[in-house]
Amino acid sequence: MSDDNPVPPERFTPEPSQEPGTGGNGGQEQQRAPLTINGQYVKDLSFEAPSTPHVFAVLQSEAPQIQVDIDVQAEPKAEKLFEVVLKVRAEARAKEQLAYLLEVSYGGLFTVHVPDQHLGPVLLVECPLILFPFLRRVVSDVTGDGGFSPLMLSPIDFAQLYRQRMQQMQAEREKAGTATA
Predict the structure, then answer these.
(1) What CA–CA distances, in Å, run from 8 to 15, 41, 157?
(2) Residue 72: how many CA atoms within 13 Å on its side-chain side?
(3) Which domains are present in the chain?
(4) Model pTM?
(5) Distances (CA, A) of 107 to 10, 39, 86, 128, 132
(6) Tens digit of pLDDT for each residue in 35-49?
(7) Using CB atoms within 10 A of its CB, is residue 19 exposed (0-12), middle (13-18) or buried (19+)?
(8) What does the angle CA 121 – CA 122 – CA 123 come to, to the nearest 5 degrees?
(9) Is-contact 137 143, C-beta < 8 A?
(10) Degrees (nearest 5) of the Cα angle 38, 160, 9?
């Protein structure tokens, strides 16, 4: 792995840390999972279809233009406990009419026992990979239940997004360093 690439080329599989075993295991060491999913949930959901029902006639002759934006956020909640939230905003337009606007935040609560140097990739790559299929289903169900063709989000390369975020942060640090020099 090169030093400038913060995401390892292989999936995250660190050595589990050891804690002294307790009760009934004959003194053997008990392994602790490096990543535990404590829960998943829809944190916020908004769906608007302000041009219905007449936008359905427009959609019979023209496919909508759909803009999808996604963001990943991670926030510590307690020691070794983190909330990871995927935020999606999808806007569909047909002939300049807003067909629908969907905003959803899908979160997960994770206990993470990894070395600090792996924390970023775990929280911003591995955890989103776990949450994404569930978020994808929510987006599909909501748009379909809204009377539109279900929106099926394409797979997302969270490792690439993480790399881009790290490069952007590095560029900002360099720019700030040259501004003060």
Answers:
(1) 14, 28, 14
(2) 26
(3) 31-173 (3.10.420.10)
(4) 0.77
(5) 25, 8, 6, 9, 10
(6) 999 999 999 999 999
(7) exposed
(8) 95
(9) no
(10) 80
